[in-house]
Structures are given as structure tokens and as C-alpha cells.
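Exercise 7.
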Amino acid sequence: MLMGLGPLVLAFMLGLGLIPPTLAQNNYRYNHFLSQHYDAQPSGRNGRYCDTMMARRRLTKPCKDINTFIHDTKNNIKAICDNNGEPYKETFRISKSRFQVTTCKHAGGSPKPPCRYRATRGFRNIVVGCENGWPVHLDESIFRP
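Solution. The predicted structure, written as C-alpha cells, is:
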């Protein structure tokens, strides 16, 4: 019986070696994207919100100049890479619908903590970079409140 399992185990192990490494890489990049830009149910959405969220997400060593939090479902954000987005420039996609967002801008001063931020709330289309159907980058240069 053990002899019969040998080829099956070998085939399984070889199959694992053939899984593209980009799958794991994209999951990491997607999770990193979420940790920097996703907050489904924000509270406050003011300067204090930004100060707290930027510190909580470890974006304050040094103080990040600008960061946008998207307040929607993961599925709706991911859909920009599919049917809720259109090609934008060469490598990005712009959402067809507007998203509720909070953009946190560093208030100036030292780039070292404690960091202070100003919040801008609004609804806007967002631009993301996608890899294999997953959002992995938010383009902060596109800002239309």
C-alpha cells in the first residue's frame, strides 16, 4: 500500500513546486495594500482619526506625507481590477464608481514622530495598480475631492 502512495506523493510535491511564486507575492502585496489603504468602517474621519490610523498602520516612521483610506468593502475595491474599473494611463485602472475616502496629509514639521495629520473627507474615483486581478497600489497623485 505504501508503494502505491509513492507516485501520488511525488506528483503532489512536484505540483507544489510548479505553483507560480507570483500568487504568494500578490497575496502579500494585496495584504500590504489593504493594511495601508483599507478601513471599512471609519470613526471620526478628522485629524485625530488620521493621527490614530497612520500610527496604527505603522506609517509614521518616518511620517508618511500622504495616505488615503478607502471606506468600502474589499470586494468593491477588488472589482476595480475587473468590472468596476477601466484602463487608466498605461498600467493603472480607475474606478467607475466613486468611493468614500479619507486622505491624511502630514501637517508639516519634523518627519519624526509624533506625526500630526490633516484629514480631507470625500467621495471620489480611485486609481489602483493591479496584478493578476488584485489591487496592489493606490495612486495618490490622482486626487479629485
